[in-house]
Design a protein that fits this description.
Length: about 80
């Protein structure tokens, strides 16, 4: 999987408790993805959090790569 997101997303234990954020900001990837999932438009996210479209794309790429590496185990009830 491509890792172009690494130019714009950082994970640092001293920033937001180590959550992935847009470099140079304290805007977590989860906030960006959550905003989009909640119906915000890309332009609204950019304006609300003072980030660029490229930052949003990097956040989505990070989320996609993270999910592709996640292994789930089905548990029947």
């Amino acid at each position: 999987m491509k890792t172009g997101w690494k130019k714009r997303i950082e994970i640092n234990p001293d920033i937001m408790g180590g959550k992935p954020v847009v470099k140079g900001t304290r805007v977590p990837v989860e906030v960006i993805v959550g905003g989009l999932a909640g119906g915000m438009k890309f332009e609204e996210v950019c304006k609300e959090y003072r980030i660029k479209l490229e930052d949003i794309k990097a956040a989505l790429a990070y989320a996609a790569e993270t999910l592709s590496e996640e292994h789930l185990i089905a548990v029947s009830r």
